[in-house]
Amino acid sequence: MTREVSVRAAGAVDGERLQARHEQLRAIGAVGLTGVSREAFTEADFEARRLVSSWAAERGYPLVMDDIGNLFIRRPGREETLAPIVTGSHLDSQPAGGAFDGAFGVLAAFEALEALDGASVVTRRPVEVAIWANEEGSRFQPTTMGSAVYVGALPLQEALQATDSAGISAGQALRQQELSPLSLGRREFGVPFAAYVEAHIEQGPILESVDVPIGVVTAIQGLRWFTVRVTGQAGHAGTTPMGARRDAVAASVAMIHELSRAMTDAEDRVRFTVGRLDVSPNSPNTIPSTAIFTVDFRHPDASVLARLGDQVAPICMANACGCTVSVSETMNAAPTVLDPAITETIRDTARALALDCVDIVSGATHDAKQMALACPTGMIFIPCRDGISHSVLEHAEPHQMLAGARVLTGVIATLASDSAGPAPFPPSSLTLQGHKGRG
Ligand SMILES: [Zn+2]
């Protein structure tokens, strides 16, 4: 019975509608022919939210927002007092990002609501589309800001006070959002969900390399961020003897070299990146007095994440080359294991739809990682061309998006249906204690 409903709902997914909505969305903040620039809380981000909100209004789906700007679109269920099954992702992008990262998950989620309508499925539980605010964290740190605030992992005031490079706070930027004339209710943080399922492009090369359309995400790898500040002494490049220098860039290069040697493993699962190096005074004929660089370090295994990550500060200290070094850890997110029952539902649904699937660990972080602190959570990946993401070259084929949206719809129909809905969610566990216990 549940399977029949699931397959029927998935069959009502409309690939042409999905593609048309994708084209409408990618035109907002378009960069060239393929990319988008929709950083969080910019006019382009707000316009994208208005567009999806207008689709909700056309369908008569109620819309609510919370104080960090997360939006929720609701398709009512037969028992409206039950916690909803929630699906979604984000509409903000990197400064020169792709049209699929986040946007695909929102489009597939909205398509799921429309497909449930199209198949005349009345679900027991309500189904909601979540549009999480500021997932990317490129303009305002940290990443996954909206979902982190929602589950209580990040205090609202701290999030609102985050500033961009121009000194504008997230709170100031968010106040520019004008969603009217849509009627918009308010939502408190932490309203319980029965389950959360997010569809996303893989942002890596695995699914394409094995030629499988559906990735069943079993875990999201852990992540640690560091900022290393190296302070030396400015001096004239032509007159200061080499032995008398305290060169902040030379010291940074030594540190990064040793870190690169340490941050490896036989299985090639470690991910180590120095993505930012700010030099001062940044002049060709002056010895650098200050260098600040970032470390992004990831691994799916908590013990490796702890062991190697704890070496960052000592390695930097040991390679200071006469400079002063300070290392601060700006993020420490443990690996997340996603809900086994939901991952099994995703596999079942893919099989019922005759779509191949394979288990996969997510290399990127997602709003689903925050939601896993609060409710049973799953993720569905689709391939992206050459594994490229966070780039204007990001691309997924229409048939790949269609397959992902069909599986998502089938999973949502199953979870929200009569016989297979998850156990009611206990509101008391949606607390910081729950977060700590899990993380
Ligand atoms: Zn994303």
Structure description:
- This protein is an alpha/beta fold and 439 residues long.
- Helices cover 35% and strands 22% of the residues.
- It has helices at residues 2-11, 15-26, 43-59, 103-118, 145-151, 156-161, 170-175, 206-210, 248-262, 302-309, 312-318, 340-352, 367-371, 398-416, 432-438, and strands spanning 30-31, 35-36, 63-65, 71-75, 85-90, 127-132, 185-186, 195-201, 214-220, 222-231, 235-236, 271-273, 277-280, 286-287, 290-299, 324-333, 336-337, 357-362, 377-382.
- Strands 3, 4, 5, 6, 7, 8, 9, 17, 18 and 19 form a 10-stranded mixed beta sheet that branches. Strands 10, 12, 13, 15 and 16 form a 5-stranded antiparallel beta sheet that branches.
- A hairpin with a 3-residue loop joins strand 1 (30-31) and strand 2 (35-36).
- Helix 1 (2-11) runs antiparallel to helix 14 (398-416) and helix 9 packs across helix 11.
- The relative contact order is 0.19.
- It binds zinc ion.
- The site of zinc ion has 6 residues, from loops.
Task: Chart the SSEs and their pairings.
Layout: H1 2-11, H2 15-26, E1 30-31, E2 35-36, H3 43-59, E3 63-65, E4 71-75, E5 85-90, H4 103-118, E6 127-132, H5 145-151, H6 156-161, H7 170-175, E7 185-186, E8 195-201, H8 206-210, E9 214-220, E10 222-231, E11 235-236, H9 248-262, E12 271-273, E13 277-280, E14 286-287, E15 290-299, H10 302-309, H11 312-318, E16 324-333, E17 336-337, H12 340-352, E18 357-362, H13 367-371, E19 377-382, H14 398-416, H15 432-438
Parallel strand pairs: 3-7, 5-6, 5-8, 8-19, 9-18
Antiparallel strand pairs: 1-2, 3-4, 4-6, 9-17, 9-19, 10-15, 10-16, 11-14, 12-15, 13-15
Bound molecules: zinc ion (ZN).
Zinc ion (ZN) is lined by residues 90, 101-102, 135, 200, 366.
